[in-house]
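#struct-pred
JK: can someone run the complex with uracil? inputs below
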Amino acid sequence: MPRMRLDKLLAHLNCGSRKEVQAMIRAGRVQVDGATERDPAAKVESDTAQVVLDGQTQQYQAQRYYMLNKPAGVITASRDARHSTVLDLFPEEIRRGLFAVGRLDKDTEGLLIVTDDGALSHALMSPSRHVEKVYEATVEGELLPDAEIRFEKGLTLKDGTVCLPARLERLTGDGAQRVRVILREGKYHQVKRMVAAVGGVVVQLRRVQLGGLRLDPALAEGAFRALTDQELTMLQKPASESI
Ligand code: URA
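RT: done, structure tokens with the ligand placed:
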């Protein structure tokens, strides 16, 4: 049975950085199996111990799932000598073993799942699963009047790439031309290339949904949080029949 330091376990559970959870433990805010534990180095059975912080039971999960609101300017990679990566946004003590599910361009923002669950990643990215991805974009240029229909029929890009049927919606709003794009695949620069094929130029792109999981609007750019059990279930939901 895995034994682990209490501070390490709480950091894994995303209760705070190692320093922060040590302060919580010393302050008497943490109970292990019913007794207050003030020693951050105390060893606990990570699988079975009942760990309570401020009255809330913390569930140890062998696998970890985070929702990240990716900011523009960081690349979707684990490590890079020259560029900041999405994993640099995670503190050292929880970063180990994590990777991003799929890829967003450096200048794309929004929902990115970061996990250590290879099977989930594979299932979400498998082309045959057709997991729905929803993007919102600011677009310049004049979109063709029948752009929506072309998306629905399945576009062929300039280089001959054939896209699955997708959806384009023009969003009304504040002056800038905003669109929503719903895809069931993830080809290289796909949204930008599809919008280009109907006369537009994407100048800002944000992913707002993956499968049934929506980006939490309260999550600041660059911030992440653990998925709830319910969100994990929504992520695994099959695509709707909306396309
Ligand atoms: N489509 C793009 O063009 N870029 C992304 O990052 C994601 C989808």
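RT: quick notes.
The longest helix spans residues 18-26.
The chain has a mean pLDDT of 91.
JK: thanks, will look after standup
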